[in-house]
Structures are given as structure tokens and as C-alpha cells.
């Protein structure tokens, strides 16, 4: 797996327009883009499913382990892996900082959403 560049992380950190498209079951075709929140923590990119583990994009991401994201003018092929639970508090704090004025913050740092946290890594 490759790493995010500092330039990419800077753009991603400042944007809130991430669209995620896990592959469909064929492993080739990208699914319908879903707009979600993202945060950068320790040079890594994380996302959470608002509806927790019942979210269709989340389940597709876990099953296919790859897809595409579009954010801040970037389109990247990515790999998905479940986040390590030990970093959830740090991710919560990043959500609090980035989205502090949003009425959707509480659900995004709830146990439901925390249980559906994914780390995104650039592919190739």
C-alpha cells in the first residue's frame, strides 16, 4: 500500500466533500458514490458510516476491500480496512474539531458509527 502525500492530506483535511464508491460484487465496477465525512488522524484517512454497520456502502467496503474516493478535486483508488478500536477516541476528537458546528456530530461519534470506522489507503 502506498501512503497519502502531505499535499493530498492537506486537501483532504480541509474538505468535507468526500464521496466513497466501494467496488460492486464484480470487484471492478464502482458503486454509486455516497457522500460521507472524513478525518485525517496521524497521516491516515478515516471515514465512518452514519448508519453504522447496517450501511450498504460500509458493508460493500468490507466485502470488496477496495474502491474509489473523490474529494477536494482528487480521485483516488483506495483500499479499505476496519479501523483499530484503539484509535477511536482520537478519531472522535478529529470529528469534534472538524465538524463542531454540525447537528450530525453526535451520531457520528456514537457507538453505532464508531463500530463502522474504516481506514482508507491509496492503492498503487
Q: Helical percent range?
A: 25-40%
Strand count, sense and barrel status of the largest sheet are:
7 strands, antiparallel
Tell me the β content: 25-35%
| Named CATH architecture | Roll
CATH fourth-tier homologous superfamily: Electron Transport, Fmn-binding Protein, Chain A
What is the CATH domain class? Mainly Beta
Uncertain runs are none
Mean pLDDT: 95
Order the strands across the largest sheet as they lie in space: 2-1-5-6-7-4-3
**Number of extended strands:** 7
Number of domains: 1
Radius of gyration: 13 Å
- Tell me the series of helices and strands, N- to C-terminal: HEEEEHEEHHHE
Supply the number of helical segments: 5
Descriptive account of the structure:
It is a single chain. The protein is of the alpha+beta class and 124 residues long. The chain has a single domain (6-122), classed as Pnp Oxidase, Chain A. It is built from 5 helices and 7 strands. The chain has helices spanning 6-14, 56-64, 88-98, 105-108, 111-114; strands at residues 18-22, 34-36, 38-41, 44-48, 66-71, 74-82, 117-122. Strand 5 and strand 6 form a beta hairpin. The longest helix is centred in the last third of the chain and has 11 residues, at 88-98. The mean pLDDT is 95. It comes from Ornithinibacillus xuwenensis. It holds the Pfam family DUF2255. This is DUF2255 family protein. InterPro entries: UCP028498.
